[in-house]
Amino acid sequence: MNLRQILTNTLNVLMMLFGVFMSYKAWGLYTNCESPLVVVLSGSMEPAFARGDILFLNNPKKPIEIGEIPVFKIPNRDIPIVHRVIDRHDSENGNQVLLTKGDNNDVDDRIFIYRELHSNRNMMWVEPQHIVGRVQGFLQYLGMFTIFMTDYPMLKYALLGAIALIAFIYE
Amino acid sequence: MNNLQNRANAVMAFSISAIFCLLAAIALSALVIPASPSGSIALDSIKVVTGRYDKNWVDFKTQDNEFANTLMQIDADLSSLFHWNTKQLFVYAIAEYSTPTHPKNQIFLWDTIIKSKSDAVLRKKGIVNKYSLIDVNKKWTNVHATISLHWNVVPYVGFMTYGRSQASEAYAFPLPSGSQT
């Protein structure tokens, strides 16, 4: 295998990776959503969504309806939450306040999620600026791949290594 | 080059695209399968009491917050929403009203999850509201609310879809009669 071939193969692998990345970002632009795919990590929305399911999101400008399932980020909390809207109040100037609850939880999110951190101890509502997406579609199981890869980082490197190896051996 | 590697690759690639085409077809089919769900809902009574804590012990700081307690009845047949791509129905009853500060308000009164066609006929009376019924302004003075039954069809694969019954007549909230015990 000469240098020219190695460079061509490297370029091909990079093209593939960047192609996937670019399509993902283009899809994000289309849906107005920074990450239009999320993987469910907890069982709080069971039996609708289980750990490892993939959710397809968008984030249109129109107000959120009751019963919809937004993905929101509480200030100072890293992991976004996917729960159902159980109260909405739209004020005259179009501002919304929302209350959410996981289908599988006994109580709404105020005490254990919004106010979990001391800095949010008076938080009563989720507001549109907390919302990063709204669930539109659903695909089971496939997200287990990414869960395995985050749980066992070696798997991720092994997979990347395998892709690179195949690209080089397999002309 | 008909070696084992090439054949395995071709079989894998073909089966993956076949599976995704099939999933897409199933997802789209759910949008066109006809269904005729029906539902009606009515309130039997509303009572308003004042208090400091809601049902989940969230502290509203003062004693004079107005919480409503309702009794309602539901009569619905949602069995036609079950087809090969229906994983579950999430059924919820809401109250809808407007106030001078907030033109549109919707609050959950009750909800249930239905996982099979045989459970999709609801005939229930005397349902107590499962969630605290408190307005964002914490008062019910001069508020008239309609109630309605909504459902969210959660598929095995594909799109989340929503539906609703017609709204009931408007019910007036009475003045507070007593306080929480």
UniProtKB/TrEMBL annotation, chain A:
Subcellular location: Endoplasmic reticulum membrane
Gene Ontology biological process terms in this record: signal peptide processing
E.C. number: 3.4.21.89
Domain of life of the native organism: Eukaryota
Key words, A-Z: Endoplasmic reticulum, Hydrolase, Membrane, Protease, Signal-anchor, Transmembrane, Transmembrane helix
MF terms in GO: serine-type endopeptidase activity; signal peptidase activity
Family statement: Belongs to the peptidase S26B family.
Subunit description: Component of the signal peptidase complex (SPC) composed of a catalytic subunit SEC11 and three accessory subunits SPC1, SPC2 and SPC3. The complex induces a local thinning of the ER membrane which is used to measure the length of the signal peptide (SP) h-region of protein substrates. This ensures the selectivity of the complex towards h-regions shorter than 18-20 amino acids. SPC associates with the translocon complex.
Functional summary from the UniProt entry: Catalytic component of the signal peptidase complex (SPC) which catalyzes the cleavage of N-terminal signal sequences from nascent proteins as they are translocated into the lumen of the endoplasmic reticulum. Specifically cleaves N-terminal signal peptides that contain a hydrophobic alpha-helix (h-region) shorter than 18-20 amino acids.
Stated name of the protein: Signal peptidase complex catalytic subunit SEC11
Automatic annotation (TrEMBL), chain B:
Membrane topology: Single-pass type II membrane protein
One Pfam family cited in the UniProt record for this chain: SPC22
Highest taxon of source: Eukaryota
Keyword DNA-binding: no
Principal location listed in the UniProt entry: endoplasmic reticulum
A single Gene Ontology CC term: signal peptidase complex
Localization terms from the record: Endoplasmic reticulum membrane
InterPro entries: SPC3
BP GO terms, sorted: protein targeting to ER; signal peptide processing
Keywords from the named record: Endoplasmic reticulum, Membrane, Signal-anchor, Transmembrane, Transmembrane helix
Role noted for this protein: Essential component of the signal peptidase complex (SPC) which catalyzes the cleavage of N-terminal signal sequences from nascent proteins as they are translocated into the lumen of the endoplasmic reticulum. Essential for the SPC catalytic activity, possibly by stabilizing and positioning the active center of the complex close to the lumenal surface. Essential for viability.
Family: Belongs to the SPCS3 family.
Protein name, per record: Signal peptidase subunit 3
Organism whose genome encodes this protein: Modicella reniformis
